[in-house]
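User: For documentation purposes, I need each entry recorded in a consistent format: the amino acid sequence on its own, followed directly by the corresponding structure tokens. There are two entries in this batch. Please keep commentary to a minimum and don't merge the entries.

Assistant: Recorded as requested. Entry 1:
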Amino acid sequence: VIIRKGQFHMGKKSSTPMLMVLFCVAFVSALNENIINVGLSSVAEGFSISTVTANWLVTGYMIVSAVVVTIVGFLLKRFRLRQIFFAGAAVLIVGSAGAILAPTFPILLCFRLLQAIGTGIFVPTVLNTVLVVAPREKVGTYMSIASCCITFGPAFGPVVSGLMITFLGWRGMFVVPLVAMVIIAIFGAFFVKDIGTQAKASFDVASLVLSALALTAFCYGVSEVSTATVPGIVLMVVGVAIGAVFVVRQGRVANPVMNLEPMRSRRFSASCLLTAVCMMMTFSMSVLLPLYFEVALGTSVLMAGVLVLVPVLGQAVGALIGGRTFDAHGDWPLIPIGFAVIFVGLCVCASVSSLLSLVLVEVGALVCYFGVGLSMSTVQTSGLSALSKELNSFGVSIQATFIQVSASIGPSLFVGVLSASAATAAATGMGAASAEASGFTSAIIVAAVIGACGMVLAFAYGLISKRQVEASRVVVDDA
């Protein structure tokens, strides 16, 4: 290992294989989040249950993974990287195998939630490891690669599951994550190394319970607010109240499961909000676009999944450009430009969706995803750079919590808007395709409003970040 400028690094030859393994596990765990979406109707039919009940395979997954994310900062301080890696791999493998063999829906749900634990473990663990072992001058590029892996997974999920359902039935959806995790675990045995130091600390169970209750109430409330407004709002308020108790407790216990000190940094807290906006856009579009393509344009499920891949590739290109630009020139004006591009893409989608033009909507989505690529990993890296090395793991856990919660809130909110608006349009006598397009337009307009708020915050954030960087250079020059 090499100690350089106060930061822990591994030699290039030893760190690259490990990062490759971790990038792969980030992709597979993220793929697993969306792999069930196109198979919900098949699962519902197979177990003779409603699609509302089957949707708990999605909602429950997101809630459990979000809860696990909140404690990963503690786990990284308490346990070695190899222990965490193989624990995450084990639950994903067992969860996938159990899902394939599950005889009843409740058992399937239990194994699906076991998979969620693995995803919750791996997303922040990968991001934290990148920060620790990546060369300082290339941390933006490495973070952009990690971001691509995390966002590529959900985009490939519908395509992979569509193929597996076609040839093997709905149980085939879980074959890919099972086989992939077995292979990755084998490579991990050779290449994943322990990094940093660990400290003994007791785990606060009460904090975990509060986190689970808060996230469950809030996320479920958001999913219900479009159909049952009052109960949904009540659940959201209850979730926020319990979350406040969780926050207070973290400041009082000796060993908090989530150290919230990073949130004292305005720059870091703003970066969390901007990261959440990015994730709401990319996760929501990955759900809205297939619905638009399938219902409004009449494409097949598989074709809809393929069409979503084009914007995702644009996001990958944007992420690589953003990472290299950040390494070379910093985050100004990269972050504001990225959010402006997101806003433009959403406006294009909203303005052309009623024309039922696949090409024009695809172009708007491509622009939006490219903007997410430019800004997401950049704003994450920029926010984490405002923290001390000791707080990095907790900062990553906080950001990952924002990611998981926004990934749960975004689709629930926007799909609710789409469904309500489409139903209203259909009630006026509009055809099914036009009604779906109207609902899609309404959902994208709501997304554009959120994107506009993010754009304003991004410009303010960029200016503050620019001034802080210039001030630090002045201090260094004076010294």
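Entry 2:
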Amino acid sequence: MTAVVPRPAATVVLVRPGGDGLEVLLTRRPDTMAFAAGLHVFPGGRVDPGDADPRLIARSRLSIEQAAARLDWPADRPPVEALAHHVAALRELVEEVGVLLVEPAAEPGVAHAARAALAAGELEFARFIDEAGLTLATDRLIPIARWTTPRTYPRRFAARFFVAELPAGAELDVDPREVAAHRWLSPRAALRAMAAGDIALWPPTSTTLQRLERAETIDDIRTNLVLGPEPPITIERLAGGLVRLTGRTVLGPTGTPANAYLVGLERVVVVDPGDPGEAFLDALEAEVAAGGGRIVGIVLTHVDPGHVSGSEELRARTGAPITCGPGGGGSLCWTVDEVG
């Protein structure tokens, strides 16, 4: 079966100061949605052609070149697409929850009126921003991750994840067509709610929350969690039946590179696939196939994002079960077997 080409998308992790550090906005998708129904997610959606409208580009605080540099944009793709991802993130934020990241700061009433008109199809985002004389605060978006829906899924997205701080005085006004409910939770509280079965999270969402557990302020995120350029993938054949592949960490500049190990010859177990990128997992599968083997299991020695982030995609590709140590499955939102 030919994999569906993923559509570009942008996601915004909206944060605010809370009693226990940062709190994150999680919205629950209606059960009627075709994609990720019932899950708690961050606001976001696909990048539309209109997100590259010249009026929006002209009213962005980031230039095309700056946006491309921030996202380490591929040289074979138009750099304006990088800025369009930033614009899409801001548009989705106002469309879904009524929050405008603009300068000068917009009153809640202005943002809520815009949300209602955009939802009703009565207003074009580019026209609204241009005629209101607003500047898109694209520079307030902090790029922290990229995720692609597994190739076995009928709906696929290649999403850029950004963090943004809730502007002072802003009030939420959610679109009931896209948001059935919403909650402000600390990352740790959200992960505990998932482990208790109170909420369901998509792997990119839970992994992002695991990363944000380490951040106490928005400056911590800017310093430690920005996702930099992807390093080259290296393959080291350590011994017969033992191979180490090193790829990109999802933990930002403070994280060590993600090492995955292949153990076995004909029946191969993958240990700690921490890089969720397609290039890394393609290289991993190619290495197994070159040796005449097949992947029969995925083992996680730790549930830190640097160890587990590629495991769900690899399971979707191969059908191999995921196994972890006792108690570890509770902090993951996909099916695992616990041993020990």
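Summary note for entry 2:
The chain has a mean pLDDT of 90.
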